[in-house]
Design brief:
- By secondary structure, the chain is mainly alpha-helical.
- The protein has one domain: Four Helix Bundle (Hemerythrin (Met), subunit A).
- About 80% of the residues lie in helices and about 0% in strands.
- The chain has five helices and no strands.
- The protein has helices at about 10-15, 20-45, 50-65, 70-85, 90-115.
- The longest helix is centred in the N-terminal third of the chain and has 27 residues, at about 20-45.
- The protein is elongated.
- The model has no long low-confidence stretch (mean pLDDT about 95).
């Protein structure tokens, strides 16, 4: 069951995948891998101040994040890129990593529940 605090609206996925439970499960399984990799790579790239690889990391997840209307991922990612481009306050790196970790964990919890 979804509630209003859950990031993912599974109806978007169901509509996209013709309301087919097997396709939804497969999508969720693949998304667990994608979001897990993104979360880990985002952390590493931002803390290492590796803007080029951070961009590649964001480029991989952006289409799915847009499709699922996961705006916080896009917003944190964009703020992080700006931080690295402008050489902003280093304490913000840890804040953005923490925000992204927390949001991705909510997504992963939801996907794992649905994938069962």
């Amino acid at each position: 069951m979804s509630n209003e605090n859950d990031p993912i609206d599974f109806q978007i996925i169901r509509d996209m995948l013709y309301n087919d439970d097997a396709y939804v499960k497969e999508f969720c399984d693949a998304s667990v891998t994608s979001f897990s990799e993104f979360k880990s790579n985002f952390r590493t790239n931002l803390l290492d101040e590796d803007l080029e690889t951070l961009r590649k990391t964001g480029h991989k997840i952006k289409p799915v994040a847009k499709m699922l209307k996961l705006d916080p991922i896009l917003n944190i990612y964009e703020k992080s890129k700006l931080l690295l481009m402008e050489g902003g306050e280093s304490g913000l790196k840890e804040q953005y990593v923490s925000e992204m970790d927390e949001y991705c964990e909510k997504i992963l919890d939801q996907l794992n529940q649905r994938a069962k």
